[in-house]
Amino acid sequence: MTPQPLNAVSAIVLVSGEIDKRWKSPKIPVVLQRTKPPTPDILDDIDTREQNAKFSLPYPDPPFKLPPSGNLALHISLGKILSEGRAGIIFDCECSIPYGNDSNYRIPPLVVKLARALHSPDLTKEATAYETMLCLQGSAIPRCYGFFQARLLDYFDFGPMSILLLEKVGGRLVLGEPLPDGAESDLFDICCDFAHLRIYHDDLRWANMLSVLSPNQGGLPSLPSPFSGKTYAWRLIDFDRISRTATESFGSVRGYYHGYLHRVIDNVPFGSIVEPWE
């Protein structure tokens, strides 16, 4: 069976699982339709917008070919909460293709990122970031299988229910232990990939650096970076704060990453979580 393409799913159906005990959950099942994110210009920083600056270099093509968009409905059972952030909650999940959907696809391990109350705009921005960085999916960042929304006014009067369906990745750098072989080099090269796209992560910290999922856990093979040609064992995540610049050079953006990344990872062997803004 071939791995499920990124654009195969047109709708997801939440068939079981509590969304959050602090919210009044909608009745199961809930159907969310695939939604096209806004255009990449919503990521542009103030200088880029004020100067009406344009990007002189096109982004490279991703190292994979997408087939025509599919019409697959995916049934999802939410599992335990894996992590919680400012804008979203990450759930483990089990996915299945309902009877009657013709498909020879193998579904990889996935997670659901659900926008918190009042944070659908943040998840919408993150969906745009994933689409903008399509060339880095599967190499420097997780694969994204779509952005899905449903308008449920009886339960979500603050905006639509918004979900990102993402490739499951592994764990963080272990505090108090030496960095794994190759981790520092991989993470620096990943940051250089972002710099090639003139993208500032703007939330570069320990919690947002995760390893890939191992093959014996069902993880997909890493793809080569379109810039370095390397395959990485690590990924950056969490893109609701990123920004894009057309007014700064590759070297300038790379310098930002060099300073922030070392401030974070140099303290991992000492068991310290140093946020880059500290």
Task: Report on the biggest sheet.
Answer: 7 strands, mixed, barrel
From the coordinates shown, what is the CATH architecture?
Orthogonal Bundle
> What is the mean predicted local confidence, pLDDT?
90
What is the CATH class designation? Mainly Alpha
| CATH fold node name | Transferase(Phosphotransferase), domain 1
Number of DSSP helical runs: 4
Order of helices and strands: EEEHEEEEHEEHEEEEH
Shape: globular
List keywords for this structure.
globular, 13 strands, Transferase(Phosphotransferase), domain 1, 278 residues, 4 helices, 7-stranded mixed barrel, alpha+beta, two-stranded parallel ribbon
Descriptive notes:
The chain is an alpha+beta fold and 278 residues long. It has one domain (2-270): Transferase(Phosphotransferase), domain 1, CATH 1.10.510. It starts with a strand and ends in a 13-residue tail after the last helix. The chain is globular. A hairpin with a 3-residue loop joins β4 (72-84) and β5. It has helices at 46-50, 120-132, 183-196, 250-265; strands at residues 2-3, 9-16, 30-34, 72-84, 88-96, 105-106, 110-115, 144-150, 161-167, 199-200, 209-211, 234-236, 243-244. The longest helix is centred in the C-terminal third of the chain and has 16 residues, at 250-265.
